[in-house]
Amino acid sequence: MxxxxxxxxxxxxxxxxxxxxxxxxxxxxxxxxxxxxxxLLIDYLSDHPERKQFTFALAGRNPDKLKKxxxxxxxxxxxxxxxxTKWIACSLEETEEGRKRVAEMVADAAVVINLAGPYSKxxxxxxxxxxxxxxxxxxxxxxxxxxxxxxxxxxxxxxxxTHAIIVPSCGFDSIPSDILAYKSAQHLAKIGKSSxxxxxxxQTFFNAKGGVSGGTIASFKALSETDPYxxxxxxxxxxxxxxxxxxxxxxxxxxxxxxxxxxxxHGSFFVMGPVNSAVVRRSWALFRAQxxxxxxxxxVSYGDDFTYSESQVFDKRGGLGSxxxxxxxxxxxxxxxAAIMKSRILRAVFFRIAPQPGSGPDEKTLHGxxxxxxxxxxxxxxxxxxxxxxxxxxxxxWLTSRMLVESALALTLSHDRLSPMAKQxxxxxxxxxxxxxIIDRLNATKEFEIKSMTLDEWRKNRESKKNV
Length: 468
Hints:
alpha/beta; five-stranded mixed β-sheet; globular
């Protein structure tokens, strides 16, 4: 049966009346609270410097697992007594009673952190729908662009009317990619003394060390089992740009090897590059539309000729990769991924030996991992800036838990600092929803450093480190 594209006009449910619910009882609701990543979130929230300014509750499908989790948390010395930790057992079932139960759960929280992926498989749409209807905020870790596209088509307009801020992909995918492109655009706009950065070329190179996420593998598995037409709708850099919106210059696309004319960087195909590129391009489109509708608004625009690509570097920390390694790894990755996608046997073997959902790296990998991202952007006036992000800890778990928590707190504790565009609501991206707020919040942690400089400043900084 051919997949039918979702349209807002085809929704037949009766929206909940938000006026029947009281103000949120909790600042944050963690759904999927019994997962490995959730425990990292809970630990981070419990020791957060702003702990006295927020409350959080735990939720999931299995009441026995939730109760056991709460007992373990307080046995390990988490804050409060066991009875004070609110937990909610709630399945995401598309029934009248199920929708009512989900709405009641969501209404009690200012922001929902959803960890229960794969999102297309586990009916995460119910949480997005409830947030859009009730004016609550939402963040998750999805890398399923076809599912994000469907959420945009169904709930972007509704969320903008209730001022609900819905932000998918708030972890390693896709905050570093989106924020680095945004940071470079800001810097170029400042140099050009304009709100338009006029970017022609924007490239990001990632160098990282860490474990493979079981959740990412589960999403890949769900992707391979999804209707091909449905998946195809979510492919390409313009997949998340609203249908009918004007498009700009096409980027270079997927290839095994990437290099840059301004810095000695050699990158290979990055598995999550297509997902991150689609998110970055949606940011480009939203900022562009905002500037055209409100030229006086303090919103940066990347420019009509903006192009973007990203790749992964395989080198020692602080290195930008070698040409030979980039070519070899890039070819192996692209050929291997294509073979897995086409062969059922290879997929079965891969998913059998790959990390499983709910699992996570050992303590050594968790704390010994790291992330380095370098974005190089050039404007039409030939100005070049370099924006960087560094993070200490496993990118897919340790750093992701920090990014997700700070995203949720940006929507609540720092809501007043968000841009008017973000406060309007909708299905947004990290850069559009959080902007400078998430950069400041991450820089305030002990794990992250995000900064931007001119190409000359970057070269001097790099040379000085070599001489130390």
